Amino acid sequence: MQYCSLYRNRGAGQRRYMNLPTRAIGSRTPDVIPAARQTVTAFLASADREHQPAAPHTRLDPRVLLPRLLLRGYRLTIEALLNVSWAQELTSMISTSPFFFLTHSHQSCTSSVDLRASHLAALPEHVARVIHERRHYLGSFHAGTHLGLVLPDSNRPLSLVTLSPLDVQSLILRLPPDVEPSSVMVLSRLYSLLDAPKNTLSFTLSKTFQWLRTQRPVVKLLLTYLDRNLGFSGSIYRATNWHMFGHELKQAYLYLDGEYVTHRELKRRFGTYEWSTLLPLLGDRISRSSIELAPLDVYAFRLDSPAMGQRRG
User: Fold this and answer.
1) How many Å apart are CA 52 and CA 39, to the nearest integer?
2) What is the domain range of residue 59?
3) Which of 30, 145, 171, 176 could form a disulfide with 163 if both were Cys (CB 3.0 to 4.6 A apart)?
4) Contact predicate 160/147, CB 8 Å
5) Is the dihedral of CA 76, 82, 87, 88 positive or negative?
6) How would you classify residue 86: left for phi > 0, otherwise alpha for psi between -120 and 50, otherwise beta?
7) How many domains is the chain partitioned into structurally?
8) Burial class (CB within 10 angstroms; exposed 0-12, middle 13-18, buried 19+) of 53
9) Do the domain assignments include residue 210?
10) What tens digit of pLDDT does each residue of 152-172 get?
């Protein structure tokens, strides 16, 4: 049985961080992702045939619909989840917040765009905030350094990368001995326009690696999380030569007034995301998922190792 254990401990790890056998991950999690994905695909096909978009030059974004639909489903018990009508859940979800699931469609952002004409630029916080809160599936702003691909004569980014300082203690304890926490950043948000060229994200990451090596040479390592409970496969990280760092136990999803909310947002608003504190504070307003969730994948990219940033030809 294969284990993912690339790096040594620098100290006693916390229980929530684990090197788990890869075949066992998610083995007891209900396999509801295919049904949810099929529902989203069928809904989009029907919408294209029968309905006009809610706003001009917009399209429903399946990259947001699927994870948000799964997040909505995970609020249910396992019995209810296995018998849920995904079509009803999807219709209800869109009717509640229709504009959250729309992404702008621009004729200039097609597969014919030459990404080599673009450049990576620092994005102001207000631009990043709009993308984080209105375009990214998490719907929550994350502070950090915001970068994006921009075409000549355009102020609208094709993509967005947000890099944040490492502040997760369980990851700090698992860093390689030669890497200090101050030399690590977390890829906390990654996004591209729906109609951008297919290789936009890989091109953006490549430019980000170059930018870090020249503008932030102190940064030696990038880390990022992948949540396979929401239908993500990690293909973009494997395609750009990230390596598996390990796995972290997935905490329950939390819901405020019936809507998914990130742990960071709860901490910002209420000073904590700990269930034992939130429950007496918020009562029936707060709830959490009860099913067993697959652990998070943690990917790493070593910026100070040229071989890890280059493909073998």
Assistant:
1) 19
2) 30-105
3) 145
4) yes
5) negative
6) alpha
7) 2
8) middle
9) yes
10) 878 789 999 999 999 999 999
